[in-house]
Design a protein that fits this description.
The complex is a heterodimer. Chain A is built from four helices and eight strands. Chain A is of the alpha/beta class. The longest helix of chain A is centred in the N-terminal third of the chain and has 15 residues, at 19-33. The model of chain A has no long low-confidence stretch (mean pLDDT 81). Chain B has helices at residues 12-28, 79-90, 139-163, 172-181, 187-199, and strands spanning 35-40, 59-64, 70-72, 75-77, 128-133, 204-207. In chain B, helix 4 runs antiparallel to helix 5. The N and C termini of chain B lie far apart (94 Å). The relative contact order of chain B is 0.12. Classes of the chains: A alpha/beta, B alpha/beta.
Chain lengths: 157, 211
């Protein structure tokens, strides 16, 4: 009986002193991999158009984003036209070629054909501006383009 | 022996704190994937290249004016009707298809369910859709139009794929999903996807407004 009750005293305590280490490791992993890069928008946040036939852009590093929209209310100097933002600057369509070439230098040569340009434009942007961007992109042979949209509703099959 | 050693610090709650932080990061991390309507631009063309001649019956012209009004093949139309009209045009199958690579005559479209109208397209692989916009057109309208047209292609591909005996009744969407779930290794599905794509190739083209 004595032996039996000894056993009943309970399982040995599991040593959890390594648990924080594991969790911290996970934490650091998430902290490091999370890209909190939120391109500082210098224009009004574009209201993206809705669409259903969308494709996901894989390989985020291969995507260069061009923002198009109106100036913010407080920035009076830009007037009411459409603005193009590349990286952290307001630019014109003449700067796009340079921007694309610059993006290309960050990648290997064999990755270049897979590079996609994503245009995040406001629904009220005029097509004229988009056409200008398209022409500039064709000029530097950046032919993969994606019009960024929000997915509306669920996919109807 | 009288001196007590410093008591061990209880690290049990350390895990809780770390978990709390971890959960915070997990929740705030938006792994939002950018999605959008894909467009393939055409390469810059030489000035004096002969443009391919396309018969007018094989062209479906969608114009959007600067007030975002739609003109489809000369008639005003609302955007809700566009998908249906495009399907009718693509799936018409009124004639012979494109010539083969070796110059043999094209075949008529045996999978088309259209009306075989003389005035509409010959074959899905000849039916070109042109989007003509003006500089004042809004980007939102342009994307909606493109979206509707892409939708009509998808609907047609789904029907075609379901009717193909090889697919076992799977729709085109399902094929794409299966292919993706196989980590792009399922070659049979890949062949099928190519086949369905070939039945209804996306012949969308933009006519850009002049400066």
């Amino acid at each position: 009986m004595a032996k039996f009750s000894k056993k009943k005293k309970g399982l040995p305590k599991i040593n959890t002193s390594a648990l924080p280490d594991i969790v911290f490791m996970l934490l650091f992993f998430f902290m490091v991999t999370t890209v909190m890069r939120q391109n500082d928008l210098l224009i009004k946040t574009p209201k993206l158009p809705n669409a259903t036939e969308v494709k996901k852009l894989e390989h985020k590093s291969l995507v260069s984003t061009i923002f198009v929209g109106k100036a913010r209310d407080k920035d009076k100097k830009y007037g009411g036209g459409d603005l193009i933002q590349l990286n952290d600057k307001i630019a014109t369509d003449r700067d796009i070629a340079n921007f694309i070439l610059n993006e290309r230098t960050k990648h290997n040569e064999e990755e270049v054909p897979y590079m996609t340009t994503s245009i995040k434009a406001d629904i009220k942007t005029s097509i004229g501006t988009i056409v200008d961007i398209k022409e500039a992109l064709v000029e530097v042979n950046a032919l993969k383009l994606s019009f960024s949209t929000r997915k509306s509703g669920e996919e109807n099959k | 022996m009288a001196r007590k050693e410093t008591p061990e610090i209880d690290a049990g709650s350390m895990a809780d704190i770390a978990f709390l932080l971890l959960i915070f990061f997990l929740v705030t991390t938006t792994m939002d994937v950018d999605s959008g309507i894909p467009v393939k631009l055409t390469e810059k063309q030489e000035e004096n290249v002969d443009k391919p001649i396309v018969k007018e019956r094989n062209v479906f012209e969608v114009s959007i004016n600067s007030r975002d009004e739609l003109l489809v093949e000369g008639d005003e139309m609302s955007i809700e009707e566009l998908t249906e009209a495009a399907i009718k045009f693509i799936d018409n199958g009124g004639g012979l298809g494109k010539k083969g690579d070796n110059g043999e005559d094209g075949t008529s479209c045996d999978y088309c369910a259209g009306e075989k109208d003389e005035a509409s397209s010959d074959h899905p692989n000849k039916a070109v859709i042109i989007i003509e916009s003006s500089r004042g057109t809004s980007f939102g309208m342009y994307v909606s139009v493109r979206n509707e047209l892409l939708k009509s292609y998808r609907i047609l591909r789904n029907i075609a794929s379901t009717n193909l005996p090889e697919t076992g009744g799977r729709s085109y969407d399902q094929l794409l999903l299966d292919y993706k779930n196989s980590n792009k290794k399922d070659e049979d599905t890949e062949v099928l996807i190519k086949k369905v794509k070939g039945m209804y190739p996306q012949l969308l083209s933009d006519v850009d407004p002049q400066k």
